[in-house]
Design brief:
The chain folds into two domains: about 70 residues, 2-Layer Sandwich (60s Ribosomal Protein L30, Chain: A); about 160 residues, 3-Layer(aba) Sandwich (Alpha/beta knot), CATH 3.40.1280.10. It contains nine helices and eleven strands. Strand 5, helix 5 and strand 6 form a beta-alpha-beta unit.
């Protein structure tokens, strides 16, 4: 492996993707977004070599460093001896969302109202990709964007599902309805079950943030609000779990092969 070294060993932790799988996924779907790689001295297994050979062919600088340096760079996370400075493509905007919806016969969207945890966003992206959704829509205000932690949690899902960030979520939901998309929000207090609503057409499934759920204006834009039936004593589900239940109920109703 004759990779070039990076100019220095420093990296901004917010730009780092680490772990063999996460770096390999980023190299697979967006090699141009990888600016530099740091590898632990002594790590020379076959999987890592294939990854580094690919990065070398793409001209990505690679620097061998001590394990303790990788520990420092990643804040003590499980990095498996490799980290990369990754700056992926920017999220798409409102115009891109409308164009994508207009081109789809029965678009399925996951809408996130102020989800702030990067691991939740990453998991939601992965779940949406697994369900064959067109995209994930998120507000810009008080919400996490495409950080390195999101890319790591998404584990390559952004290669299969679009991510849209919008300035005014309530307005965006109104625009989606103009395109014939039914907006269905999730709230534990809703009297209607998620299994009682028709999701066979174009649908945007809305889940709220980690603490407060959907905002009032978001809820008011929903055509219907549904609850996920749960056993007594359980108040709520994790954002990504709730998203998965709703998305795959839509998949079940549509009878779509994945």
């Amino acid at each position: 492996m004759a990779a070039r070294e990076a100019a220095d060993g420093r990296a901004d932790a917010s730009d780092l993707v680490y772990g063999l799988h996460a770096v390999r996924e980023a190299a697979g779907y967006d090699p141009a977004g990888i600016e530099a790689v740091w590898v632990e001295h002594g790590r020379r297994d076959a999987k890592l070599k294939r990854l580094l050979d690919k990065l070398d062919r793409s001209g990505v600088p690679v620097r061998r460093v001590a394990r303790k340096e990788l520990d420092r760079m990643t804040g003590g996370a499980v990095h498996q001896g490799v980290a990369a400075r990754y700056r992926g493509a920017a999220p798409r905007g409102e115009a891109d969302l409308e164009e994508a919806v207009a081109a789809a016969a029965t678009p399925l969207l996951l809408v996130l109202d102020q989800v702030q945890d990067p691991h939740n966003l990453g998991a939601c992206l992965r779940t949406a990709a697994a369900a064959g959704a067109l995209g994930v829509v998120a507000s810009r205000d008080r919400a996490v964007g495409l950080t390195s932690a999101v890319h790591k949690s998404a584990a390559g899902a952004l290669h299969h599902v679009h991510f849209f960030q919008v300035t005014n979520l309530a307005r965006t939901l109104e625009r989606l309805k103009e395109h014939g998309v039914v907006v269905v929000g999730a709230a534990g207090s809703a009297p209607l079950s998620c299994y009682e609503v028709d999701l066979t057409g174009g649908a945007a499934l809305v889940v709220g943030g980690e603490e407060r759920g959907m905002r009032r204006l978001t809820r008011e834009r929903c055509d219907s609000v549904v609850a996920i039936p749960m056993a007594a004593g359980v108040e709520s589900l994790n954002v990504s779990v709730a998203a998965g239940v709703l998305l795959f109920e839509a998949v079940r109703q549509r009878g779509l092969p994945l």
